[in-house]
Amino acid sequence: MKKTVSAFVAGAVMSMTGAAAFAESHGEITVAYFLEWPMPFQYAKEMGTYEEALGKKINWVSFDSGVAMSAAMASGDVHISVSQGVPPFVVATSGGQDIQIVDVAVSYSENDNCVVASGLEIDKDSASELAGKKVSVPLGTAAHYGFLKQMDHFGVDVGSMSVVDMAPAEGAAALSQGAVDMACGWGGALRRMKESGNILLTGAEKEELGILVFDVTSAPASYVSENGDELAKFLKVTADANAMWNAGGDDAAKMLPVIAKDAGMDEAATAETMAGFSFPSVEEQLSAKWFGGGSQTFMGGVAQVFVDSGSIDKALESYEGTVNTGPLMAVKGM
């Protein structure tokens, strides 16, 4: 990870260059997003709503990782990244890259968790029995941070446990084979883990402890400062699409096939994936839970996990400056 961080931080520039600067000079912007990660904004994307609101052409470019998004923003090839993961954002900003969070793209605390082997019959009321147990954790990730926070909440000394660094898929296999007592991970691997055990806390319960699992909309600080009105219009379209999806019923039914097609997925898989997602309103994002302090505190915790695992050299003293609520505040007035 350090090599990756060094590579794109070394190439970071203070002003927009490359493809994005060319696009901007021609009345266009470039926006990064993920395939197979279905979200309401894709309905507006396909309907041309963003172009209509901004009055310019948008080049939508798909990426395969949040780290790649950071690199593209550093080189000046991308203006806005939709649904960048918090861990790669934290890595980039900790390494000196000047990018900012402007929006909570999606929260998915139900899709990142730890699972205890069913044979142990341990739940949140008997979690103290995890002391001395063996657990697989993907070190240096948000799942690692979530594990540490949960154990702290339950008063379990992590030092008494045998913690093994495993990718989620490996952890799921180890749990099913009885090689570990608990496994932590996300996505498809988490679903497989649940076939072998049970979670200790629900997503909502974890959020109450400050364990947030979410992606953000991010952008170079220079773009945010110079194009605040344009960014607010972009976020307003996103907020409207989220509200339309959150309303459910006929609106969501109309959106589903469009989102599925754009995400490169079938409708059933899209519906199943999005059932585990939540899309906070602008008001919710500006609350204490998110941009009113919760997100910044969470990022500090994630950064410390990265430092302790040797993934990055140091954390920022504070992550307050990495969140810019100006554009979202402007959306409230629209």
Task: Report what the structure shows.
The protein has about 325 residues and is α/β, with parallel strands linked by helices. It contains 17 helices and 10 strands. The protein has helices spanning about 1-10, 20-25, 40-45, 50-55, 65-75, 85-95, 140-155, 170-175, 185-195, 205-210, 220-225, 230-245, 250-265, 265-275, 280-285, 295-310, 325-330; strands at about 30-35, 55-65, 80-85, 100-105, 110-115, 135, 160-165, 180-185, 195-200, 215-220. The protein has a 5-stranded mixed beta sheet. A 5-stranded mixed beta sheet has the order 7-6-8-5-9, with helices on both faces. β6 (about 135), α7 and β7 (about 160-165) form a beta-alpha-beta unit. α3 packs across α12. The longest helix has 19 residues, at about 230-245. It is globular and about 60 Å long. The chain starts with a helix and ends with a helix.
Short précis:
With 334 residues, the chain is α/β, with parallel strands linked by helices.
